[in-house]
Amino acid sequence: MNIPSTLKTTGRAAALVALSTVAALAQEAAPAATAAAPATPAPVLDTGNTAWMLTSTALVLMMTIPGLALFYGGMVRKKNVLATIMQSFAITCLVTVLWFMFGYSLAFSDGGGMNAYLGGFSKFFHHGITTSTLWLPGVANIPEFVFSMFQLTFAIITPALIAGAFAERMKFSALLIFMGLWLVFVYAPIAHWVWGGGFLGSAGVLDFAGGTVVHINAGVAGLVCALVLGKREGYGTTNMAPHNLVYSVIGASLLWVGWFGFNAGSELAADGLAGAAMINTQVATAAAALAGCSPNGSSPRSLRCSASSRVLSPAWSR
Question: Residue 256's pLDDT is what?
């Protein structure tokens, strides 16, 4: 009897049995491990972010009505103050309806093959959005209705800013037609270019709180309107002094306060960056307003803002 050969054969058999046992145990353990692994939790609504965005939305809406309405209304002649204020009010109403119907979808939905330039039609009338639909799930976790409403306030104030370029100079009906067309064919596409996945955002263009979509956009449109309308009749010969600068100061103050929602709200979250945007807004606005005031004479009463000094009587500074 060859004992070494027998031992070798027995050892090999034992090894094979051991390997088979380990493999079987591994196969049994795999499903158990898979079942035990925690599943990725579904995104849930962030109540803190949502509360802040609801507040920011109300603040930005306040910038137009009554903020911008009073700001512009105080700088026109007395006979036109109501018409000027109503322009901001009417623009708010018009843009709200158009945004709900078409604007939001054109700015913030997938445009398919044209997505680089324009959103799609899938969210017309906010189709498919429910109370449980989240914007940026896993990041902001706010209701898409709230995001749409926040963006609506931006869409409202932008054409309202343009109205200052032709104050007292355009018929009310013409204003409504122009602003409606401008929102659909200019504002919504540009908002999509930058914020909705269009070619500017994809190219790395940064617009944290509307520098391109709101301010440059409104500024260019206002300039074009002024050039098309031509020189104001009576300019230089007719007294066009503001009738009530107190209205303008109140309006500017409301704009200042509303800007915290405009800038800090653009973070879409209640976090440190929102806090940084808020303090930057306060310091920058205060510094700019202070720089706009210049001492003129030795009396404390002579400290006056340059904007007011152009329209107030020289006797005021004596």
Answer: 96
